[in-house]
Design brief:
With 269 residues, the protein is mainly alpha-helical. It has one domain. Helices cover 62% and strands 1% of the residues. Strands 1-2 form a two-stranded antiparallel sheet. The longest helix is centred in the middle third of the chain and has 38 residues. It starts with a helix and ends in a 5-residue tail after the last helix. 43% of the residues are buried.
């Protein structure tokens, strides 16, 4: 899927999940915690595509999300792509094809998702708010690039960077102290997993079963049959999928903020 769809899916899943926890597990979150979790999950839903690098010195190419912070994120994407390609060749079996890049390999696997979620949690627990500020800065930037793609493109990476830094500092200053902030790591991990699921419904698929070997292939791409799979950027994705995700996100947000509004219309979500 395209970047905006991934980011929107992360936001919708986090809001819907938060509503479910509120309704069925009596787990309440403050408005700030909800906003942070939604933004981080939206950013996490773009994170795996940082394995699609471009031309660092020209500030061109790569996935849209790789240009979030200009040449800095492009360089990060270049490193991630090379690491992913290295892991691919280190673990490939006889029937795995040769590849010229690492896109849709390591970062599109469940082990990577678990590692990123756990690593974020451990980082925030060990280093407190300074780590939280760094994680929020990065993830809010990705979320801005995905959810407000056209605005981010016009504004440029410098403005996106400044807005991300300001938002991260504000959130960290208002978060309660003395916590490990486990929901931040959870939001990153959930976002990455939602990304994988989103790419599974496209024609290319993802190696979600790695590192389980299947018929002498370690990197088997799993996805829907081509007859029903989505084409990235198609009208079905842009119109139908994004509209459905938007409805889910809005209903969940209203259900969390003002459940009486839904009750007036007899909407059960």
């Amino acid at each position: 899927m395209m970047g905006p769809s991934h980011a929107l899916s992360g936001a919708a899943v986090w809001l819907a999940g938060s509503w479910a926890l509120d309704q069925f597990a009596d787990y309440h979150q403050s408005p700030l915690a909800l906003a942070v979790g939604t933004a981080v999950c939206a950013g996490g839903a773009l994170f795996p595509d940082l394995d699609l690098s471009g031309k660092v010195t020209r500030n061109q190419g790569g996935a849209t999300v790789a240009r979030t912070f200009g040449v800095f994120s492009l360089f990060f994407a270049e490193v991630m792509e090379k690491v992913s390609l290295g892991v691919y060749y280190a673990t490939k079996l006889s029937r795995d094809p040769r590849r010229s890049n690492g896109h849709r390999t390591l970062t599109h696997t469940i082990p990577f998702t678990l590692l990123v979620g756990w690593g974020t949690t451990a980082l925030c627990a060990a280093y407190g708010k300074w780590a939280v500020i760094g994680v929020l800065f990065f993830m809010i930037g990705l979320a801005l690039r995905g959810l407000f793609d056209e605005w981010a493109e016009r504004a440029g990476w410098v403005i996106v960077t400044l807005v991300s830094a300001g938002a991260a500092w504000f959130v960290a200053a208002n978060l309660p102290g003395g916590r490990g902030y486990p929901l931040i790591g959870t939001a990153v991990g959930v976002g990455c997993f939602v990304h994988i699921l989103g790419d599974m419904i496209t024609k290319a698929g993802v190696p979600i079963l790695w590192p389980i070997p299947i018929k002498r292939r370690m990197w088997t791409m799993i996805g829907l049959p081509n007859s029903i799979a989505l084409r990235a950027g198609s009208k079905t994705e842009v119109v139908v999928v994004r509209a459905a995700l938007t409805v889910i996100a809005v209903l969940a947000a209203v259900g969390l903020a003002a459940p009486s509004v839904l009750q007036r219309f007899n909407i059960q979500v």
